[in-house]
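Regression test case RT-17, inverse folding.

Input:
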């Protein structure tokens, strides 16, 4: 489903240039649950944003389900994103002035789904993550774990083929982290492709495959290594 070849991405600020992705190649097949590991600054978020069509790359080719994304204009990229992709972020990214229900409905609104169908699907998604009782609350009145469950409901409400999660448990205690991982595993079991960024090897073991990033590259030889400690002894 994801096919990236020789992807490079640079950030320029003033005189400085950072190479965030360096000729990175990555394939993810439909139905995989991939964990992307790597230290802070290794390019994980940049990679996920590129996969999710949030940020274009400078070089290389990226095909999503066979479509060369470089050929898409902004509107077409947004449409593809709304149809295919659900996001979960470390900082939840819920809109503070919208109720839980309205936050979860957003992906369906972007897709122009009729209101009544929206409402039903939102309720199914909220039941699923155990947050239906808080449907009319504002995100600010919820705990971090609860906010992330709402964010997961928002990511799954449109039944996207691809779910992208950027350190989805980074702000959660271990009990809530496990709960979010359970949900991601369920979504995967139902057929979604999942790409999760994490720096926690204990969470990454729950994926079906792991890749390690360092300095914007996939480290060869430990592409599916069980733990980063073994990765460093390999070097
Ligand atoms: N918007 C930006 N402007 C300038 N540099 C950036 C920007 N975003 C990321 N970077 C740099 O790109 C590199 C990769 O960042 P990032 O993808 O966020 O890494 P990670 O998610 O693995 O911590 C880092 O060196 C970071 O400082
Ligand atoms: Mg990051």
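Golden output:
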């Amino acid at each position: 489903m994801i096919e990236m070849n020789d992807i490079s991405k640079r950030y320029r600020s003033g005189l400085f240039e950072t190479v965030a992705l360096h000729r990175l190649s990555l394939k993810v097949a439909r139905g995989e649950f991939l964990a992307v590991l790597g230290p802070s600054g290794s390019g994980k978020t940049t990679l996920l944003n590129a996969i999710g069509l949030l940020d274009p790359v400078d070089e290389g080719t990226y095909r999503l389900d066979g479509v060369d994304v470089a050929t898409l204009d902004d509107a077409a990229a947004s449409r593809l994103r709304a149809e295919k992709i659900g996001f979960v972020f470390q900082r939840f990214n819920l809109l503070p002035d919208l109720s839980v229900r309205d936050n979860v409905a957003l992906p369906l609104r972007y897709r122009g789904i009729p209101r009544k169908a929206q409402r039903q699907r939102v309720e199914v998604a909220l039941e699923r993550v155990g947050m239906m009782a808080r449907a009319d609350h504002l995100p600010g009145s919820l705990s971090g774990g609860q906010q992330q469950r709402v964010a997961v409901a928002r990511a799954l409400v449109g039944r996207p083929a691809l779910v992208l999660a950027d350190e989805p448990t980074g702000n959660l205690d271990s009990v809530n982290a496990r709960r979010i991982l359970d949900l991601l595993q369920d979504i995967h079991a139902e057929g979604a492709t999942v790409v999760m960024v994490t720096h926690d090897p204990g969470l990454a073991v729950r994926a079906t495959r792991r890749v390690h990033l360092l300095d914007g590259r996939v480290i060869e030889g430990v592409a599916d290594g069980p733990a980063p400690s073994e990765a460093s002894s390999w070097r």
